[in-house]
Amino acid sequence: MKAVIQRVTYASVEVDQKIINSIKTGLLILLGVGIKDAFEDIKWLSNKISNLRIFEDENEVMNHSIKDIKGDAIVVSQFTLMANTKKGNRPSYIHAAKPEVSIPLYEQFVQQLENDLCKKVGTGIFGADMKIDLRNDGPVTIIIDTKNK
Q: Which of 42, 84, 122, 126 is 20 to 30 A from residue 97's alpha carbon, by CA?
């Protein structure tokens, strides 16, 4: 699994010109599911994101996690994170899991993150054409690949 984690002061997901989820302070998480991903990746990644200290403390040092600040999260599935760009100019997505595999893993990841954060997590709609609006805070953007633990 690959995740792009963005610290935000605002984020929303729009489908068919309707905002389906929005948050204030927290994390926008773009999630790519690969063909070799399993439940162990979900547990590890959710734990890592939940405890990642990227929010500032009173001394303006990134020392707090999303759990510490009681922030919100939105998780959006994004198969293009699994792109292979080594050959040519057209990305290959052969390492991205097919929907019959990626949908259950995506849903399990959302559930695990909800369990780890002890709160509801917003989502996009899997496979939909989504518009993401965000205000990146910092900017702080972290990329995590569960294959590089």
A: 122
